[in-house]
């Protein structure tokens, strides 16, 4: 556990941002559909001063990656875990909270609301708690619309936007609440390659300014290595972390994802991760 200096100069322990202790999830327990999706998942993400980590997660299909994110999000139907404990900043989670934002692969905006209404939505719900006036909500939402590159599109409905633009709405909607933790479940998988690279660049820019801890599930090894400062490889179901690649070079602000992803040093890391991933794919079911 990290320590921080308190006002008296002594060291105070700081709770990790997220901690999973021996977490398992069994769906449909006691029925013929019983399935163990996660088994003994243990990890701890320390609260680093002035920055969040970006953790990318790779693993075979059906190994429990979404289950892990959904448990951490506290989503009904997956939450709670079957065994173990999940802490966010030292507290057991009790359900969803605005400290944890989620962005899904499928564009998760409200179809009957404009871009601005979508981005304002969470702010309006939390208006009293966040002590916001209507004017402040509008300004904050417009600011986020601008940050994700949608200025001029604020009065459009999601169906009038491209896939990449819709995903920008979802990102703005989540980040407007300033979540300490951002959960992204294959957020760019449905996008074409140029849009995907553009979104990777956007995420890096936002991440640098936002200081959130991000968990991003992807099936692209290049994306995992490019975005992650740690890459986790999950085993086949029941999922657990079998390999962690850490201290990966961080994407620089303003850098072109295409340029970086073509460099031999980048490709060497991708090859190393791919080799480990293949070993998991070939392994017998645990
Ligand atoms: P992935 O790693 O592909 O994201 P998931 O976490 O979505 O995998 O799913 C892991 C396993 O758990 C899958 O076999 C899936 O069918 C099962 N599963 C996921 N959610 C549920 C649920 N709500 N009810 C029953 N089974 C589920
Ligand atoms: Mg999934």
Kindly describe this structure:
- The protein is α/β, with parallel strands linked by helices.
- The protein has two domains: 13-99 and 179-282, Rossmann fold, CATH 3.40.50.300; 109-162 and 169-177, no CATH class.
- 35% of the residues lie in helices and 23% in strands.
- It is built from nine helices and twelve strands.
- The protein has helices at 65-73, 115-125, 127-130, 134-147, 163-175, 193-210, 221-227, 257-262, 264-282, and strands at residues 3-5, 11-13, 18-27, 35-45, 54-58, 83-88, 91-92, 100-103, 181-185, 213-217, 230-234, 241-246.
- The strands form three sheets. The protein has a six-stranded mixed sheet, sandwiched between helices. A four-stranded antiparallel sheet has the order 4-3-6-7, with helices on one face. Strands 1-2 form a two-stranded antiparallel ribbon.
- α4 (134-147) packs across α5 (163-175).
- Adenosine-5'-diphosphate binds at residues 27-28, 35, 37, 59, 61-67, 77-78, 237.
- Adenosine-5'-diphosphate binds next to β4 and α1.
Could you provide a short overview of the structure?
The protein is α/β, with parallel strands linked by helices. It has helices at residues 65-73, 115-125, 127-130, 134-147, 163-175, 193-210, 221-227, 257-262, 264-282, and strands spanning 3-5, 11-13, 18-27, 35-45, 54-58, 83-88, 91-92, 100-103, 181-185, 213-217, 230-234, 241-246.
């Amino acid at each position: 556990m990290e320590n921080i200096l308190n006002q008296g100069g002594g060291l105070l322990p700081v709770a990790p941002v997220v901690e999973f202790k021996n977490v398992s999830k069994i769906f449909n327990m006691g029925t013929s559909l019983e399935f163990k999706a996660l088994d003994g998942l243990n990890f701890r993400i320390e609260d680093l001063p002035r920055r969040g980590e970006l953790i990318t997660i790779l693993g075979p299909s059906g190994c429990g990656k979404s289950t892990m994110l959904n448990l951490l999000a506290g989503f009904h139907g997956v939450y709670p875990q079957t065994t173990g404990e999940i802490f966010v900043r030292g507290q057991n989670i009790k359900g969803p909270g605005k400290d944890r934002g989620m962005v899904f692969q499928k564009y998760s905006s409200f179809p009957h609301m404009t871009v601005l209404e979508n981005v304002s939505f969470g702010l309006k719900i939390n208006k009293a708690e966040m002590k916001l006036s209507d004017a402040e909500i509008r300004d904050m939402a417009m600011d986020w619309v601008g940050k994700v590159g949608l200025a001029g599109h604020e009065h459009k409905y999601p169906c009038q936007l491209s896939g990449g633009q819709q995903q920008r709405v979802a990102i703005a909607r989540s980040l407007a609440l300033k979540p300490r933790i951002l959960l992204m479940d294959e957020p760019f998988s449905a996008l074409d390659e140029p849009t995907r690279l553009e979104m990777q660049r956007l995420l890096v820019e936002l991440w640098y300014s936002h200081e959130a801890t991000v968990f991003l599930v992807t099936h692209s090894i290049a994306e995992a290595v490019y975005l992650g400062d740690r890459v986790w490889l999950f085993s086949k179901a029941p999922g657990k972390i079998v390999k962690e690649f850490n201290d990966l070079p961080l994407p620089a602000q303003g850098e072109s994802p295409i340029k970086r992803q073509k460099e031999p040093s980048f490709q060497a890391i991708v090859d190393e991760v791919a080799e480990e991933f293949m070993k998991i794919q070939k392994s017998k079911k645990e």
